[in-house]
Amino acid sequence: MRRWKGSASPAEVWMVDAANAPVQQCMGRLLVQTDGIGFYDVSPSVTKWLEEAQVRDGLLTLFLRHTSAGLTLQENADPDVLHDLKTALDRLAPEGGPWRHTIEGPDDMPAHIKSLMCGVQLQIPVIGGQLDLGTWQGIYVAEFRKPAHRRSVTLVFQGTTITQAPL
To answer: Which domains occur in the chain, in start order?
Structure first.
């Protein structure tokens, strides 16, 4: 990868020479055991997966394979942020609301609504083998159901790997 030497744009731009560094694709799966409602920081596990996959520069897509949980980037420095997010989501989609779908329990439909609001996929740039996250950002699986669950996150990296010749 080399730095772009173009006009006076204040943004940093890197260019990858695709002829010397063909795009590779790496796929994997991360299993997350939850203990019930809460936010579970998976950043260390994702970082470890990137190291094992020996990636360098590209884009990581994360996809949560569930409809009653979410995947989000959030602040990882102050736990009060996660507490306040849970409080806000509970107010927007309360248990015991006027929901028709209750066959899986009173927490299920609110969990689906929270999943809809939170989303189930993320795309994060990877530069030099590192997630290009902000200082206080962490990757979280948001569990919206009361019982423990085993959640599955599919990881897809597209880009260059360290096994390829450097540019």
So the answer is: 22-161 (2.60.120.460)
